[in-house]
Amino acid sequence: MSSVRVVISLKNPFPFGRNSRLPPLKPTPLRNKIPPVLSPLKPTVRTLRASAAAAEMVKAIRVHELGGPEVLKWEDVEIGEPREGEIRVKNKAIGVNFIDVYFRKGVYEAELPFTPGMEAVGVVTAVGPGLTDRKVGDIVAYAGNPMGSYAEEQILPASVAVPVPPAVDYKIAASVLLKGMTANVLLRQCFKVEAGHTILVHGAAGGVGSLLCQWAKALGATVIGTVSSEKKVAQAAEDGCHHVIIYTKEDFVAKVNEITDGKGVNVVYDSVGRDTFQGSLACLMSRGYMVSFGQSSGRPDPVPLSDLAQKSLFLTRPSLMHYTATREELLEAAGEIFANIASGVLRVRINHTYPLSDAACAHADLEARKTSGSIVLMPDS
């Protein structure tokens, strides 16, 4: 454990201010600085350091260097009391998303060291001064900024927390909020899917893909889904895919052309990236929409604008945070997700549960494509 030596001058007993907080460590430069689906704020769990005031300790996953799942370390971290506009939350369930892998590997930028995780449900244990719309005992969920949900407890801005309806199980809420709001943006805002449309969803058996397929079918669209293995075909079909393609064994472009009689699809939702990107463009009909929202196989190669002109295509790379920037937008998006769960439009599969301390195993399985549906981490205590 490193320590920080603080020299206190008698003339200035509070060199960093009366509520002293040590200056942050110098950030480690990272390789890529592309806009992430969710851009991080500073982590909400503070590392154990010498400080002028005693602090309570909780357990959390920490990343001190970029790399594989083995860089996820189970450590003691310092947590204080919420300030004005903040709440302290004891996490009950934590969602795992592929964006957590991107940050761990350095695909997206974060200041080292950091606590990963961008989705959780927990109980409010303390509220900061001046808050009147939150109280101790509330069950709340959050998805997105700030990063830091892989922890037993965390401090959150009250503005990012949404109430969880009593009818929605907390594990379901933790596994679906980020993915569900992402699906909302993709289906209802980037391109508004309607009855009669034909869509292509890559990763149809994954967390977001499963929700996209269910929701699109309920809207009346014809859904073509791709999966990576035979064992995921049945789930994709159950989740609403009218046609399922194993893209690791079949030429998905040829199959889409066959299914659509050469017309192509109205929109492609692509979270795979490099391995599928060019093929996805080829699957689109004239004036079709290419919605890229992930890159699990790597960053796609640059696309000349002239390539889009051949069929007057539209290309977008959305960020959820731009669609939930206000409190009203956040509450509306979260409310629609919870309502669709309650009505049965969306069914959430939590196929994999791991102890929080075993987050490295969850990441390894996710990257190896051993998982389907949603993954949840459960705090050890």
Automatic annotation (TrEMBL):
GO cellular component labels: cytosol
Domain Enoyl reductase (ER): residue ranges: 67-377
Protein keywords: NADP, Oxidoreductase
GO molecular function: mRNA 3'-UTR AU-rich region binding; NADPH binding; quinone reductase (NADPH) activity; zinc ion binding
Pfam families in the cross-refs: ADH_N (PF08240), ADH_zinc_N (PF00107)
Entry's transmembrane regions: none
PANTHER family reported in the protein's UniProt record: QUINONE OXIDOREDUCTASE PIG3-RELATED, QUINONE OXIDOREDUCTASE-RELATED
Oligomeric form and interacting partners: Homodimer.
Name of the protein this chain belongs to: Probable quinone oxidoreductase
Organism of derivation: Phoenix dactylifera (Date palm)
